[in-house]
Amino acid sequence: MKVAILISGSGSNMVALAQSMTGDHPARPCLVLANDPDASGLAKARAMGIPTAAIDHRPFKGDRAAFETALLEPLLAAKPDFVALAGFMRVLTAGFVRQFEGRMLNIHPSLLPRYKGLNTHARAIAAGDAEAGCTVHEVTAALDDGPILGQARVPILPNDTPDSLAARVLPMEHRLYPLVLRRVATGERGPVSLP
Ligand code: GRF
Q1: SS3 of 122, please?
Q2: 169: CA distance to ligand 1 center in Å?
Q3: Which residues are the active-site ones (predicted)?
Q4: Mean pLDDT over residues 23-49, rounded?
């Protein structure tokens, strides 16, 4: 089974996913695709021997459809069974998502359905929430909205800042995403909960 991973930056979730796909794991990474040629995750993928590609979204300016047409070319060429968005920061149209219906996953740094969109940790702190976390979900046309496949929770501490909270959530992402991907790849059902 082949997994394409889309990134925008450091790709720490991509590394965690790629490192988990070994041994008797039924899936292997087939492509790491970035929307920024300078994404530092690309060098990490190359160092792991994973094919990479980059389609810079900036030349396309607001033409989302043209950018997605360009993005689809290396992605479809890799013939992935699954597509994992891992720190991918571009919103994808319904038309793009529909081509991977039921086969596209995303990790979002909040306990969805709370805090869709950006600045999730700052919003959870501002709301006085007792806990925060991350969610792996199936990608649908609506942003950060598909069926939840797994969640990991961390407490919000009294003097937490968005950065200190992110520092506790990110390692949980690196545990949760590989767990969920393995379940999806082996056809197991039912959401994962951490801890
Ligand atoms: C992080 O904020 C993470 O919470 C979210 O995407 C951002 C970058 O992740 N999923 P990565 O290091 O590029 O995987």
Answers
A1: helix
A2: 10
A3: 108
A4: 98
* pLDDT for residue 189: 87
The answer to whether residue 191 sits within a structural domain is: no
- Find the CATH number of the domain harbouring 143: 3.40.50.170
The reported pLDDT for the residue numbered 62 is 85
Which is the closest atom of ligand 1 to the Cα of 87?
6
The pLDDT, as a whole number, for residue 165 is: 98
What value of ipTM does the predicted structure carry?
0.94
Task: Kindly tell me if the per-residue pLDDT of 170 is higher than 90.
Answer: yes
Contact between residue 15 and residue 96 where contact means Cβ atoms under 8 Å apart: no
The 3-state DSSP class for residue 120 equals helix
In a domain, 195, yes or no: no
Domain of 154 in residue numbering reads as 2-185
Does residue 66 belong to any structural domain of this protein?
yes
87 is in an annotated binding site: no
In the chain, the number of structural domains is: 1
